[in-house]
Amino acid sequence: GSTSGGSTFGIVSTIFGFDPFSGRFSAGGESGQPPVIPQNMCVIFQFNDAVDQRSVSTETITVQEVDLTQTPPAPGPDAGTSFRIDGSFLNVCPLIQFTDTNVSYGFLPNRTYQILFEVPPSSPTVRSFKGTPIRTSDRGPFYFQTNDVIYDRVPGPPQPTATLLDAAGRADCVITTGGV
Predict the structure, then answer these.
(1) What is the side-by-side order of every strand in the sheet holding 36-37?
(2) Is the model more confident about 100 or about 127?
């Protein structure tokens, strides 16, 4: 079934806040527009239970550009993203690519994106650690816009960090170099 022990699994908050007019987690934009974030910022969802890392992938979560001037909204190309789980938090982050002279992000500047979750009866779906699938009402879409701002999460010079994993994939050693 879609429940485990009589409970449901779903989103309880996002970085965007709760919109009392729509009853959804998407407040923050001006004049009814989606909220605006820097192009390298992660979109964070909090669930009411721990998220099963194995259930989180591009098969269960779609992040794509969308044209909201069309009716219905017209989906565009997928965004380059990565997913990180920390207990009940799901971080949807843009991929960051470096070249010799440039850095690019999975979220392009000045674009509108949507995040959609696969929900039952689709399979696979995002699930709790207990195996409960995400509730249907939390499918989305969750809209946001990017601007051309780059958010520096750690002010100061870069500090490269490498994490070495043991054979089981657990962090075995973390190496951090000092600032330049």
Answers:
(1) 36-37, 142-146, 112-117, 61-67, 74-78
(2) 127
